[in-house]
UniProtKB/TrEMBL annotation:
2-[(2R,5Z)-2-carboxy-4-methylthiazol-5(2H)-ylidene]ethyl phosphate binds at residues 138-140, 169, 189-190. One of its GO terms (molecular function) is thiamine-phosphate diphosphorylase activity. It comes from the Bacteria. Belongs to the thiamine-phosphate synthase family. CDD domains: TMP_TenI. Binds 1 Mg(2+) ion per subunit. Condenses 4-methyl-5-(beta-hydroxyethyl)thiazole monophosphate (THZ-P) and 2-methyl-4-amino-5-hydroxymethyl pyrimidine pyrophosphate (HMP-PP) to form thiamine monophosphate (TMP). This is Thiamine-phosphate synthase. It catalyses: 2-(2-carboxy-4-methylthiazol-5-yl)ethyl phosphate + 4-amino-2-methyl-5-(diphosphooxymethyl)pyrimidine + 2 H(+) = thiamine phosphate + CO2 + diphosphate; 4-methyl-5-(2-phosphooxyethyl)-thiazole + 4-amino-2-methyl-5-(diphosphooxymethyl)pyrimidine + H(+) = thiamine phosphate + diphosphate; 2-[(2R,5Z)-2-carboxy-4-methylthiazol-5(2H)-ylidene]ethyl phosphate + 4-amino-2-methyl-5-(diphosphooxymethyl)pyrimidine + 2 H(+) = thiamine phosphate + CO2 + diphosphate.
């Protein structure tokens, strides 16, 4: 089976239980998806492996019913355990060649690119999409490189042929600008996860980016 070429990255949710204001990740995802989220990345930095897998399975059932892909952050083992659509890997995570060797051929692999060089290397390595990170300064991750800005998005978009998703400091005020700079989608964390109403937040973002 070949990897899917029609994944909709337009509104890409990245979860973060520390920002969910006491709501479960499943609850936030359900609400966000009902508001128009098109792709979900489950990110769990503190949970045990068993908890991560249990949560991923529950979320996958919800997403499968709606035809939305579940991407697992960092953890190839968790993606394999639950049959997720794929993984998203940072520059210090497992190398894409090793992940590709372990995952089934149809699995998606996204790579975070902190520079044009990262993006070009990811495409050469067989990445399915690139997360341009960070576009703007963001409080949700403290280990990121300096913001690439809209110019960075434009440069990467013009240099690679695979989908490009902007992440980092993106919200209602600047989402449209990121898309106009050439991104195929925006990835958001706090703009949805920490919102009073994740469904309304997702709807507003979806409307903003058309």
């Amino acid at each position: 089976m070949s990897r899917p070429s029609t994944v909709d990255y337009t509104l890409y949710l990245v979860t973060d239980r520390s920002l969910s204001r006491g709501r479960s990740t499943l609850e936030v995802v359900r609400s966000a998806v009902s508001g128009g989220v098109t792709c979900v990345q489950l990110r769990e930095k503190e949970a045990s492996t068993r908890t991560f897998i249990e949560e991923a399975r529950a979320i996958k059932v919800l997403l499968d019913d709606k035809g939305i892909p579940l991407i697992i952050n960092d953890r190839v083992d968790v993606a394999l355990a639950v049959g997720a659509a794929g993984v998203h890997l940072g520059q210090s995570d497992m190398h894409i060649r090793d992940a590709r060797r372990l995952l089934p051929p149809e699995a998606l692999i996204g790579i975070s690119a902190e520079s044009l060089e990262d993006a070009l290397a990811a495409e050469r390595g067989g990445a399915d999409y690139i997360g341009v990170s960070p576009v703007f300064a963001t409080p949700t991750k403290t280990d990121t490189a300096l913001p690439l800005g809209l110019d960075g998005v434009r440069k990467i978009r013009s240099a690679v042929g695979i989908p490009v998703v902007g992440i980092g400091g993106i919200g209602l005020a600047n989402a449209a600008e990121v898309m106009m700079a050439g991104a195929d989608g925006i990835a958001v964390v706090s703009a949805i996860v920490a919102a009073d109403d994740p469904q309304k937040a997702a709807k507003a973002l979806k409307k903003k980016i058309g």
